[in-house]
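$ run holo --ligand "copper (II) ion" --emit C-alpha cells
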Amino acid sequence: MRIDFTINNSTQPEARYATWAPSPLRLRLLDAVPSPQPVQVTLAERRNPTGGSIRFSTTRGGTYSTRLTIPMPTDGQSVTVYLRGEFGKPSTADGDVSVICQDAASQPLGLLPLMVRIRKNANRLTSEERDRFIAAMAQLNNRGMGRFADFRSMHVSGLADDQAHAGPGFLPWHRAYLLDLERELQLIDPSIALPYWRFDQASPNVFNTGFMGVPDSIGAVQFGPSHPFLFWATDGEQGIKRRAIAPSPGANASPAVQAETSTLAAGPRYAAFRRMQGNPHGAAHVSYFGGSISSISTAAKDPLFFLLHCNVDRLWAKWQVQNKRFDPSNVDAYAGGATPTSLLAGHNLQDSLWPWNGVITPPRPPNAPGGDLSRSACVDAPGPRPLVSQMIDFQGQISEKAQLGFSYDDVRLS
Ligand SMILES: [Cu+2]
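-- output --
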C-alpha cells in the first residue's frame, strides 16, 4: 500500500513549492486491499531543524494542524486536503521539509519533499540563498545576451512612463513585472524567491562586495572575486553604474526615506496609500545613489532595482493585510472608485497590462518587449496577459484561483 501525491494540481517537481497561502494536496491510496472500510492515514511534516514547516487542513479555510488523519477509500479514489507554510518558518533550501504519510501502524506510505518558498529580507538571507539568487540573476543576464534584456527594455522611459508609473496602476504593474522576473529566475533555479531591500533600515549584508556590490569613487560597482555579477552587462555596456551620494545604506538608512511605520499609517484607502510612489519609493531610488537606479529609463539596468521594488510590493502587501484590501471590487482596494475607463489605459481595474498584452497601438507604446508573462507550475494565475484586477488578491483570499504564488516572510495571510 502506498500514497500517491499531487500538489498544486500538478505532478511536476516544479510544483512542489508552498507559500503561506493554502496549496491543494490530492492523495490517492494505491495497491490497497479492497475493503468497504476506509484506511486511516496520517499526514505530518518531516523537516530539517532549519527547514520550512508545514500545516494541514481538510478544508481550505479550515484549521491547520501539524498532523491530519484522513479516511482514504481503498478503491483508488482521490481525496483533496490543503497544506500551507507555517508563518515564520520558511524554508532555506529546496526539499528541506517533506510531507510524510503513514498508516495506523505508523508504516510509511509516502514522502513528498517540498519547499516553503518565501520572499525574504535580503539582509537576512543565508549565504547559500544569496548565492543562488545572484547566480540565477547573472545567468538570466548572461553577460548582457540573456532574457534579462527584456526586463530592462520593459522599464524604459518613454515606453514604461505612462503604463507603469502615471497612475494607480504603478503598484499592480510592478507586481506583475516582479512576478514575471521571479518566475524566469525559478526556471533557472526553482528554489529562488525574490529578496527585498528594507530601504528604511541599514542593510550591511546587502551592500558589500559579496552581494549587491560597493561603488568605487567613479561610480562603478565593485564585486569580490568570482562574484557572478563581475560579468553583468546591459545595452552593450559592462558593469553597473551606481554612485554613492550619501552614507551607504549598508551602514545607515537615509532620513529622506520614509520609514515603514509611516508608510503603513496612510489609512485604509488605496488612493492615500499609493502616494508612497513618491516617498518612500521615489526617495529610495534617489537618496542613496546616483547612476542607473536614480532614473526610470535606466533603473532596471541595476539588479538592486528588483530588491528595491520587491520592498515596495511588500509594503503594498502589508498594507493590504492591515486593511483587508484583497477584493478588487472594493473601491478602497484600488483606484478609489474611478469610473471604468476613466483613467489612462493600463490603470483601470479591468485593463490589461502592457507589455504582456502585446498591444502596440495608441495610447499604448509602439512596442511591447518580453512577450507573455511567464507561467508557474504552482498556480494558474494570472495567465499570460494579466489584468490590473488580477494583481490584487495575490494570496487567493477572495478567490482561490487568484493566488499568484508568492508570500513575504513578515506578511501574514490576514
Ligand atoms: Cu521604482
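-- notes --
The chain is about 20% helix and 15% strand.
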